């Protein structure tokens, strides 16, 4: 616990105040930025800046030419006040007076010192990189000597610290409870969006920038003797275009044939956006022998509660049609669905005109369930009837045995 002081003791709403060390550290660690308050030439200043906590010290990042860093060079350091707030929700009351917010905030007072020790500066900068992404410090260039000379670090010992928070719902006056106005809480959360690679980036999005989700939504890598499935990324677009630049590949798909790699990049971006929304799990398919990108496939219509998933959004270069690459990819996807995720039902959808695809799904051991009329729209604007197939968990052992037999015999299935 932190010891209350005159500066950290409130005059009102004392029930919201806390001096719990763990609670303060949790807020500081969750927040990415803070507001640094200080006085220069008798005038107050507020500066938003990045921060990171290492033990019981709060480090603040800045430029060597900024006002607080220049002021902190003196032997007495710089008296500062640091504030951090996490907004958790908006509270709508029946009366305007009782509208409020749910929040967690930390205020720290003290004297900040300029960090001059090279080892301490390096520790702080590494900790800051790891805060934005575990593993980032090893996957980015360290600062040069010139960059280090332009970077300043303030250190504030965490001793005079308070935590203030509000949780819960509406606190209307009893006389207002019968008013005909909506009241309640709208939760707010800081959530990362879909990572957007810079122009020219070919490295895939790192794991620490992919959201942690249910295993059903995890594009876990899968490897066989003939094919490797790995998480689809925009960096695969050029190779994917080269592998599938054939009108027959796109004949029965519900998206138009891309005319260049930019078009494929847009399709990949759409797939990644659907994955971010929890609607699809996309993989790229590579030849396990050459490493070449040969196609893509996905899970979609993902329903963990019912134990159901569909396999589709698949397009594969013609040289790999009816080869062990395609067969093994389906085997890997089915094995993950039934044996790792605990699926009870796997579904396929094919265009009613696509007899080749229907025969391929039937060779997997799936059962034709029926036709979904005017189910999806084709690129030319016409509406297609979709043939639906499924395989249930009771049918999987026999289907798996037959697929393995065909692979060992070198026979194509799908």
Entry keywords:
Pnp Oxidase, Chain A; 6-stranded antiparallel beta barrel; 2 domains; alpha+beta; 414 residues; Aminopeptidase; 24% helix; 8-stranded mixed beta sheet; single chain
Order of helices and strands: EHEEEHEEHHEEEEEHHEEEHEHEEH
Please tell me the CATH architecture of the largest domain by its name. Answer: 3-Layer(aba) Sandwich
As laid out across the biggest beta sheet, the strand order is 10-11-12-13-14-15-17-16
Described by strand count, sense and barrel closure, the largest sheet is:
8 strands, mixed
Which outline best applies?
Answer: elongated
Give the N-to-C terminal Cα separation: 64 Å
Organism: Micromonospora echinospora (Micromonospora purpurea)
Domain N-acetyltransferase: 227-388
Protein name: Nitroimidazol reductase NimA, pyridoxamine 5'-phosphate oxidase superfamily
InterPro entries: Acyl_CoA_acyltransferase, GNAT_dom, Pyridox_Oxase-rel, Split_barrel_FMN-bd
Description:
This protein is α+β, with helices and mostly antiparallel strands and 414 residues long. Helix content is 24%, strand content 34%. The chain is built from nine helices and 17 strands. An eight-stranded mixed β-sheet has the order 10-11-12-13-14-15-17-16, with helices on both faces. Strands 2-3-4-7-6-5 form a six-stranded antiparallel beta barrel. Helix 5 packs across helix 6 and helix 7 (324-340) runs antiparallel to helix 9. The longest helix is centred in the last third of the chain and has 17 residues, at 324-340. The termini are far apart. The model has no long low-confidence stretch (mean pLDDT 92).
């Amino acid at each position: 616990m932190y010891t209350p002081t005159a500066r950290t003791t409130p005059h009102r709403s004392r029930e919201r105040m806390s001096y719990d060390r763990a609670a303060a550290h949790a807020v500081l660690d969750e927040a990415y930025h803070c507001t640094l308050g200080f006085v220069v030439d008798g005038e107050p200043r507020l500066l938003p800046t990045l921060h990171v906590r290492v033990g019981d010290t709060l480090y603040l990042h800045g430029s060597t030419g900024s006002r607080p860093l220049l002021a902190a060079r003196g032997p007495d350091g710089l008296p500062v006040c640091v504030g951090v707030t996490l907004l958790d929700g908006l509270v709508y009351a029946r009366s305007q007076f009782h509208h409020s917010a749910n929040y967690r905030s930390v205020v720290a007072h003290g004297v900040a010192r300029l960090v001059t020790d090279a080892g301490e500066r390096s520790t702080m900068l590494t900790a800051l990189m790891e805060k934005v992404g575990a593993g980032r410090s090893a996957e980015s260039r360290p600062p040069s000597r010139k960059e280090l000379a332009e970077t300043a670090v303030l250190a504030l010992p965490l001793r005079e610290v308070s935590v203030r928070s509000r949780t819960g719902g509406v606190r209307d006056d009893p006389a207002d409870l019968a008013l005909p106005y909506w009241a309640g809480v709208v939760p707010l959360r800081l959530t990362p969006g879909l990572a957007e690679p810079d122009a020219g980036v070919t490295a895939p999005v790192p794991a620490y920038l992919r959201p942690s989700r249910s295993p059903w939504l995890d594009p876990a890598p899968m490897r066989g003797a003939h094919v490797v499935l790995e998480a689809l990324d925009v960096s695969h677009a050029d190779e994917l275009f080269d592998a599938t630049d054939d009108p027959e590949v796109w004949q029965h798909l519900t998206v138009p044939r891309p005319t260049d790699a930019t078009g494929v990049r847009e399709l990949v971006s759409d797939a990644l956006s659907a994955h971010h929304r929890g609607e699809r799990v996309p993989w790229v398919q590579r030849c396990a022998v050459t490493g070449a990108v040969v196609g893509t496939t996905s899970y979609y219509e993902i329903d963990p509660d019912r134990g159901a998933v569909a396999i589709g959004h698949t397009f594969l270069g013609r040289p790999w049609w009816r080869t062990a690459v395609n067969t093994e990819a389906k085997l890997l996807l089915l094995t993950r669905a039934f044996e790792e995720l605990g699926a009870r039902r796997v579904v396929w959808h094919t265009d009613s005109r696509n007899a080749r695809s229907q025969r391929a799904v039937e060779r997997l051991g799936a059962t034709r369930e029926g036709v979904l009329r005017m189910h999806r729209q084709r690129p030319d604007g016409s509406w297609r009837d979709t043939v639906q197939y499924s395989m249930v968990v009771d049918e999987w052992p026999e289907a798996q045995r037959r697929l393995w037999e065909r692979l060992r015999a070198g026979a194509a299935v799908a």
